[in-house]
Amino acid sequence: MRSEDGNQFDKMSFADRKAFILKERVERDIIMSPSNKGGEYACGNANDNFHLAGIFQRQHPAEICITYMLKHLIAIRNHVQKINTPTPESLRGKCHDICNYAEILHSILHEDGIA
After folding, report:
1. Contact status, residue 100 vs residue 32, Cβ threshold 8 Å
2. Is residue 103 part of a domain?
3. Are 50 and 58 in contact (CB under 8 A)?
4. pLDDT score of 1
């Protein structure tokens, strides 16, 4: 099958997609580890940076997290619409960041007792 611009791409089977997602989760877990990027922003508790930014911006920590996530979604949308062309590695990183922010958002909502 070919995309609209004529480039060829393969479709994933369910098994291929599962294997791909599991492989990528390993990398995201490394990124989110407290000794890596995940711990670089918090001063005590894991979601402190979202709570502090929320105080500064007068927003709920979940809104701050969604804003950070949207930044990456917009960049990917811009790439798909050919507004700009980040590198494939950059796109991969943005996908990882979106997944990480979704999990962080879930944890913030859990802190509030609503998810």
Report:
1. yes
2. yes
3. no
4. 40
The residue range of the domain holding 52 is: 14-111
Q: Is residue 6 part of a domain?
A: no
Q: Above 90 in pLDDT, residue 84?
A: no
Pair 72, 97: CB distance under 8 Å: yes
Domain count, the chain: 1
Is 71 inside any structural domain?
yes
Query: Which residue type does 70 have?
Result: L
Distance separating alpha carbons of residues 31 and 85, to the nearest angstrom: 24
Q: What pLDDT, in 10s, does the model give residues 85-114?
A: 767 778 999 999 999 999 999 999 999 999
Q: How many CA atoms within 13 Å lie on the side-chain side of 45?
A: 9
Task: Identify residue 75 by its one-letter amino acid code.
Answer: A
Query: What's the predicted TM-score (pTM) here?
Result: 0.80
